[in-house]
């Protein structure tokens, strides 16, 4: 049969929390799969507020697979990108991004995505387009101690109000 479609549309959070929040403690890990046909759109998590306000926030020891996912018109708010993955624990985990499209989104650091410490990110195709960051990384913001491999990716017409219109790689001081 035809594959199904899962759509998250217009989910607004007024408590400065993400639409989807995945968190583990230091003793547990998980595998997360975003399969083709999943769409995240029109999410607003109180863009003027502070807090954990991303459309999708992963603070976990997790291997994440994103396949042909669509995200558009999502707002990360004052602290995060619409898609934020930060491994706050020890060990390195993988973010595998294949043929995903993220467009017309807005965040503080990372108009579309933030890739945090202890994450190995692999990009195989897809487009990150027409996103805006209030600070750094109009398309993608990469924190220190992340390992990023880009095999194919279109970064198009992204805007940063500070540094890195397409992408910004930040080296934090010791």
Helix content: under 10%
Q: Uncertain runs with pLDDT below 50, 5 residues or more?
A: 46-52
Per DSSP E runs of 2 or more residues, the count of β-strands stands at 17
Following the backbone from N to C, one meets helices and strands in this order, namely EEEEEEEEEEEEEEEEE
* Portion in beta strands: over 45%
Overall pLDDT confidence = 80
Distance between the termini: 54 Å
Characterize the overall form. Answer: globular
Topology (SSEs and partners):
Layout: E1 6-9, E2 20-23, E3 30-34, E4 38-44, E5 56-59, E6 62-67, E7 70-75, E8 83-85, E9 93-103, E10 106-107, E11 113-115, E12 119-129, E13 132-133, E14 140-142, E15 147-156, E16 159-160, E17 167-169
Parallel strand pairs: 1-4, 2-5, 3-6, 4-7, 5-8, 6-9, 7-9, 8-11, 9-12, 10-13, 11-14, 12-15, 13-16, 14-17
Describe this entry's structure for a reader.
It is globular, with a radius of gyration of 15 Å. The chain has strands spanning 6-9, 20-23, 30-34, 38-44, 56-59, 62-67, 70-75, 83-85, 93-103, 106-107, 113-115, 119-129, 132-133, 140-142, 147-156, 159-160, 167-169. Strands 1, 3, 4, 6, 7, 9, 12 and 15 form an eight-stranded parallel sheet that branches. The chain has a six-stranded parallel sheet with strand order 2-5-8-11-14-17, with no helix packed on it. Strands 10-13-16 form a three-stranded parallel sheet, with no helix packed on it. It has 174 residues and is mainly β. The protein contains no helices and 17 strands.
